[in-house]
Write a structure and sequence with these properties.
The structure is a homodimer.
Chain A (H helix, E strand, L loop, with lengths): L1 H7 L3 H4 L5 E4 L7 H14 L3 E4 L5 H12 L6 H24 L4 E4 L1 H4 L1 E3 L8 E4 L2 H8 L3 E5 L2 E3 L5 E3 L4 H13 L3 E6 L20 E3 H9 L7 H10 L2 E6 L7 E4 L12 E15 L7 H10 L4 E9 L2 E9 H14 L4 E14 L9 H11 L6 E5 L2 E7 L3 H12 L5
Parallel strand pairs in A: 1-2, 1-9, 2-6, 3-6, 9-11, 10-12
Antiparallel strand pairs in A: 4-5, 7-8, 11-12, 13-15, 13-16, 14-15, 16-18, 17-18
């Protein structure tokens, strides 16, 4: 009864009593045996709420059914279809918990109050109304919530796009005032680089949010990028841990440069890049603002952007993720006449990331030098305060990762 | 525009403009190819709304996943699980319609306003709030609605039990003021008896609602019994038709004895019966009212009931459907001490049905005579104005169907 009255109050000191939100990914929910294991973990570790993904393979199965009929993914029925995968996971985990004497409160997005915009298949969470979840907590129930999905203001189901369940978990933590969100997955944490590419890769124990953001956006697939942004924004302690091991995992923190003298925390690489070159000598409307406004309206995310002169006109180079490449090309073709468009899909982006870069000069130069020694062409460059990224030919990706990891990380051990 | 303004009005003469509700069963939705065929049918025949079941096999797959964890089916997560099957069907048919230029409005139970009680896994529809469906119609959209599911007043998903999609379709027709509901299935209509058991079985072109009720409840699996009750109650013209043929199907009507001189319209048989005998010589609380109130509270549906003296006390015989047998036995064992309980599961019920019986004496006698000639024991008897039903040993079921069909139907051709 004490818990009940504390939870129903809104004073901030009492909100701190809300325990962590757990999130279990598709691999963790992949079989009945694994779901039973997840239920055991919940019984032992007592989260305040659990967010789940679809059983691994299920979303692909559903998407493949849809694609036999139509390639439309910007329509409500597509989101309704894929959302069914999480619904199954929520139900099965709830059954497994009830069997263990825990009363579950199975919740889909409309009940849990996960409001999104109406960009079907790639919706963004606007708000989590935590009321229904809190009511369940007050009743002593454990809310089991479908990740990856939301609901529009007019009641239509949406999906957040791949990996969105991480974001659901963090948004729910924020919505109910939880201070911690633990993402359970099938790896031990965030690695210095992809261990399949580089055998020297090791787990990063503590990583700065900004570094994690760069790692995530640069292709480290452990966490969905938006979940890291939200965790940083809301001050939620985010931890990545392995469902199937006792490893302590990786914890995100706000501390700058956690390990003294370590300039680069990680090497990230991404394969699904596409490089578009667009040039026009005539069209006065063809400028940076117009081009990227139009692409944004179509929901195309652009990464690296460069601009140069082109026969008296303009030339724009940019990269998009490969699934968006065709849409980007068509959009530009329809919008601007006489555009010279080149699409190159055999490229990768490789990045070094680290808050230590802020105080260390010459890191970019060392990266270019390392790539040059390996005879790897640099097609485009992008930099931020804590990252240097290069677009390179895809067949050189593994070679580049290994060389950069050796240069910046293995030697700093 | 004319249609729009007519639909948005509420006057009864204009409500008549609402076309039929179609319902497609699991076999009709069983593959992508079949879903495309269903979309073609909708394009051609222009229903006002479409209700769909899960793809055939899908509900079984989901139930089997659940049963690996737990046998609880009286919990919200069970209903949430099985409801996902219809969600997939709604989504896929919507995609197929949109591809054909029809704008679908995919709807799950909460959006469509299908309110039920909260008897999970066997919920009853209380009401269909047709507002959202009508709004979709006014916008020129075709509502595609998940059958088999509903929502409780406090927003939890429910399922109606097997075959419930027929009931969804009729309730939705009533909710939006449609006059006709066409159930598309994988057979040409309602047969005089099971054609797999009796090769002389033929399609009944017009069947009285009460006859259909008796046929449905006696094991003719073409239509869910509650859908027939609701159609009769609301005066909705109910038609059963084959998705894959041009047969005109079977139409339910209110006309008594549609075919002159035909006393028996059909022979129905059901295999999944269980026979329970309960006797007590001591317990004063053990009486008909108490026994069947307690069983009803547990949601056990009882069919045939007989009562007799038993060693100075009482003996009650009754049948339940086999899946309920264990629950019924346990309930009685817990409630009444010193009860003698016998469960027999190797029984079948066989019934002859026809509105013509009302005016023809001696039909029951002819039935008993026919069974006696076949040396088939009659274990229990149940009668209504338009039906005579007998519980018999299961191994004699096919023999009984063939003999009764020959006696009452084949010869009346």
């Amino acid at each position: 009864m004490a818990t009940k009255s504390m939870l129903s109050s809104n004073s901030s000191s009492q909100i701190n009593t809300i325990g962590p939100v757990f999130k279990f990914g598709g691999t963790s929910m992949g079989t009945i045996e694994r779901i039973e294991h997840v239920a055991e973990l919940c019984l032992k570790l007592k989260p305040s709420a659990v967010v789940v993904s679809a059983m691994s393979g299920e979303t692909n199965r559903l998407v493949s059914l849809a694609s036999e009929i139509s390639n439309r993914i910007d329509v409500p029925e597509y989101d309704m279809l894929v959302a069914s995968g999480e619904q199954v996971s929520v139900s099965l985990l709830s059954l497994a918990l009830r069997k263990r004497g825990i009363e579950p409160c199975p919740m889909l997005a409309p009940t849990a109050g996960i409001l999104t915009d109406s960009q079907f298949s790639r919706a963004s969470i606007l708000k989590v109304k935590g009321d229904a979840i809190k009511t369940a907590l007050e009743k002593g129930q454990l809310p089991i919530i479908a990740g990856f999905q939301g609901v529009t203001e007019d009641g239509r189901l949406t999906s957040l796009g791949r990996g969105g369940s991480d974001t659901s978990a963090v948004a729910i933590a924020a919505g109910i005032g939880a201070k911690e969100c633990i993402i359970y997955t099938d790896v031990d944490g965030v690695f210095t680089t992809d261990p399949r590419i580089c055998k020297d890769a090791r787990i990063i124990r503590t990583i700065n949010y900004e570094e994690m953001l760069e790692m995530a956006s640069q292709g480290s697939k452990v966490l969905h990028i938006r979940s890291v942004q939200l965790a940083a924004k809301w001050g939620i302690r985010l931890v990545v841990r392995n469902t199937f091991s006792n490893d302590e995992g990786t914890e995100m923190s706000t501390i700058d440069s956690p390990i003294e003298g370590e300039v680069v925390s990680g090497v990230a690489a991404t394969q699904n890049e596409a490089w578009i070159q667009a040039g026009s000598s005539k069209n006065p409307k063809f400028n940076l603002a117009n081009v990227f406004t139009i692409l944004a309206q179509k929901g195309v995310n652009v990464d690296i952007i460069t601009q140069s002169e082109h026969e008296g006109g303009m030339k724009i180079n940019f990269t998009v993720s490969q699934p968006d490449a065709k849409l980007a090309m068509e959009t530009l073709k329809n919008e601007f006449k006489d555009l010279k468009l080149i699409l190159r899909e055999d490229v990768s982006k490789i990045s070094i990331v680290g808050v230590g870069m802020r105080t260390h000069a010459g890191v970019a130069a060392r990266m270019f030098q390392t790539l040059a020694e390996q005879n790897i062409d640099i097609l485009l460059v992008t930099t931020s305060e804590i990252k240097v990224g290069c677009l390179i030919p895809r067949e050189k990706m593994n070679q580049a990762v290994q060389a950069l990891h050796k240069e910046f990380i293995s030697f700093s051990l």
